[in-house]
Specification:
Layout (H helix, E strand, L loop, with lengths): L21 H19 L6 H6 L2 H24 L8 E5 L4 E6 L9 H9 L2 H18 L1 E4 L10 E3 L3 H11 L6 E4 L2 H16 L7 H10 L3 H15 L5 H13 L14 H17 L5 E3 L1
Antiparallel strand pairs: 1-2, 3-5, 4-6
Helix pairs in contact: 1-3, 3-4, 3-5, 3-7, 4-8, 4-11, 5-6, 5-7, 7-11, 8-11, 9-10
Amino acid sequence: MPPRTDLQEYIISEKPRGKNPVLIHIILFVITLFTTTLAGAGSGDTFLGALAGGLPYSLTLMAILLSHEFGHYFAAKKFGVSATLPYFIPFPSLIGTMGAVIKTRSPIPHRRALLYIGAMGPIPGFIVSIVAVVIGISLSRVQPLPVPAAGAQIPIFGDSMLFALIVKIIHGSIPPGHDIFLSPYAWAGWIGFLITSLNLMPIGQLDGSHVLYALIGPSQRYFGWGALTALFILSFFWYGWAVWIIITLVILMVAHPPVPEGPALAWYEKAAGWSCLAILLLTFIPVPVEFL
């Protein structure tokens, strides 16, 4: 199952707490770099040689996560909101990580600040992801699908609209019985698209909910319930969405907490906010993985 990331991007308290030691952030970063490198490692004559083969994947994915989280961090600092450095979450698996989170430790003052803090994670993360996908797809090859052995299952990863469009532009139509075998850069970019879309869902305290609340206020909750309903329908096609629904109801909630209105948004700020929702539609993967 692809990684879920940023389950609660922001935890708002009434007053800032003591500073976190930088060392814990560095340790988690180094461990996550190792687990993602291990996930991307292939075969090699030596362990170190195989591990070095995982660096293109791990460094690309870490660049996506860094751009996303530090986008939030610097936006929070711009508006005087106390925020931690990113906490990376290592997870030995096919992916190697469960993403990264930051925590805000003081209230967000108004909707304008909320828009910047919410949008300035997915936008830079999306830009780095799209660069990785374009380069990675150009390095990927279209090959026949292997015939699975008796009882074996081959995972087939789904495409978002934007990912499928990039594949079609670079490689044309994929013949029946074939698929594109992703290079490490493309695989990291695919995960980057997934991370972006998960965070841009207009639910609870996810980035998309921050952005939508900044744009339309408490009416965000209607879109939150609509998104939850859509995930319920999609869970019949991919069971992973059922897990996301449970996470939403238990941790994220649906409606965004109230934030003061504050200064009016400029036209370009509104455009940036609505562009985040367009990015959600472009990067969302209805069925992230199925088995052949």
